[in-house]
Design goal:
It is a single chain. By secondary structure, the protein is an alpha+beta fold. It has helices spanning 43-52, 91-104, 108-118, 132-135, 140-165, 176-182, 203-230, 234-239, 246-256, 292-305, 350-362, 394-406, 408-412, and strands spanning 3-4, 56-57, 65-69, 80-83, 121-128, 187-188, 196-202, 262-267, 285-287, 309-321, 329-337, 343-348, 366-373, 380-389. It has 13 helices and 14 strands. α5 crosses α6 (176-182) and α5 crosses α7. Mean pLDDT is 81; it is low at 4-33 and 407-420.
Length: 420
């Protein structure tokens, strides 16, 4: 889903992960394989990023250039000369020297600035206040804290990507494949000690995701405040329209649990400006352990109240099972059209089961009507009816037959009585 900034280029990554132009394993003092092109870097954007990361402007010729130093112990070791505009003949040379100095700087923020310059990205930052004993632990305990933060961040991103594709109190398996694909290119940085993490969402492909997360997180905060003040859950019902869902509340629970509080902040990419309808400097959203009961109630409510969905599905039969040679059985379809899930299971009577078996044998997809139930994440179809094979062109039929041959053991299980 995401690519880690500290992951080697040849490492194993999750499906759908995209590499980043400045994604490299390096150490302080090691420049990236590809620096941003100075000709494509606007001095105002570089200045805004330096200021965002706490760098200080310390003099320079007004209107021509400024000298910037990083915060903390690296202040005396690094100094950047950044032009105020690109109008001067030496502006591009100064930018090139500044970018090289950033690549060689030991300042922790230097690499983050280079990432933001390479691909204009909205930055989302997580802070997780963990007990000192856990944050300072070495070995497995320290790694567990960092992985908790990283995993919860991934879940929050997925919840946002699901909401971009459609509003629902509970998404389950629906829309998941396309939501995961939409996260390609999102870059998650290291989470030292499990306390802090930064993610970069490229504007070109992910601005809608960043805007959606901004709205959904603030709507969740408001709904939690309302529930804690009044005991009512009505605000959570209304918050679904802003993208709040069980997936988001579960992700926040995972993030808050075991901590003393968390905060999530968003900074828009300076090169792209502020999205319409959003504040230029969004306030961080904070959650504490005291919010957990409201989040758990909301998640349970979303799961309980999300209605079944009437559908007409076309899919390829990939698995069949029944307890004996006759009677009803269970069929699993790989969905081709009709529902935003990858697979569904259904109970079919003897005649419908026979039709499904024949369609499977000759490599034809099956069409069926029913209701997708939220039980099991919208992977089960109930009330199956109108079961019939669907004619397809020869190329599609050949592909389905090849799939049948590769998975013939599934069909052979139809009469074995084995349970899934």
């Amino acid at each position: 889903m995401h690519r880690s900034m500290d992951e080697p280029g040849g490492g194993t990554v999750a499906p759908g992960t995209g590499a980043h132009p400045v994604d490299h394993p390096g150490h302080p003092g090691t420049p990236p394989g590809e620096l941003p092109d100075p000709a494509g870097v606007a001095p105002a954007v570089l200045g805004a990023l330096l200021r965002r990361h706490g760098w200080q402007r310390r003099g320079g010729a007004a209107g021509r250039y400024g000298r910037w130093t990083p915060p903390g112990p690296a202040a005396g070791a690094t100094s950047l000369l950044v032009p105020d505009t690109a109008a001067f003949r030496d502006s591009e040379d100064l930018l090139a020297e500044a970018l090289t100095a950033l690549a060689r700087s030991a300042a922790p923020s230097a690499r983050e600035i280079l990432v933001s310059l390479a691909v204009p990205s909205d930055e989302i930052r997580w802070w997780r206040d963990v007990p000192e004993s856990a944050a300072g632990a070495a070995g497995a305990a320290g790694w567990a804290e960092a992985e908790t933060l990283r995993s919860a961040a991934r879940q929050i991103f997925l919840a946002g990507a699901l909401a971009v594709r459609g509003r629902a109190g509970y998404h389950g398996a629906r829309r998941r494949t396309k939501a995961l694909a939409a996260l390609e290119g999102t870059l998650i940085g290291p989470a030292p000690g499990g306390r802090r993490l930064t993610a970069y969402v490229p504007v070109a492909a992910g601005r809608a995701l960043a805007v959606q997360l901004h709205r959904a997180l603030h709507a969740t905060r408001e709904a939690v405040d309302y529930q804690r003040a009044t005991g009512g859950m009505e605000a959570f019902d209304a918050a679904v329209a802003a993208g709040v869902s069980r997936e988001l509340t579960e992700a926040l629970i995972a993030l808050v649990r075991g901590s003393e509080g968390i905060a999530i902040a968003l900074d828009w990419a300076p090169a792209a400006g502020t999205p319409d309808g959003c504040p230029a400097g969004p306030e961080p959203v904070e959650f504490s352990p005291g919010d957990l009961p409201a989040l758990r109630l909301a998640g349970a409510r979303y799961l309980r109240d999300e209605p079944a969905v009437p559908v007409r599905i076309t899919g390829a039969v990939v698995r069949m099972r029944r307890s004996g040679p006759r009677g009803a059985g269970t069929v699993r379809l790989r969905v081709l059209t009709g529902a935003e899930v990858a697979h569904v299971r259904m109970e079919l009577d003897e005649e419908a089961y026979r039709i499904a078996g024949h369609a499977h044998l000759v490599g034809l997809p099956l069409r069926v009507e029913g209701r997708l139930e939220n039980r099991g994440g919208f992977r089960r179809l109930t009330g199956a009816s109108q079961v019939s094979p669907v004619q397809v062109d020869e190329a599609e039929r050949d592909r389905l037959m090849k799939s049948l041959q590769e998975n013939v053991d599934f069909f052979e299980e139809a009469c074995t009585g084995e349970e899934e």
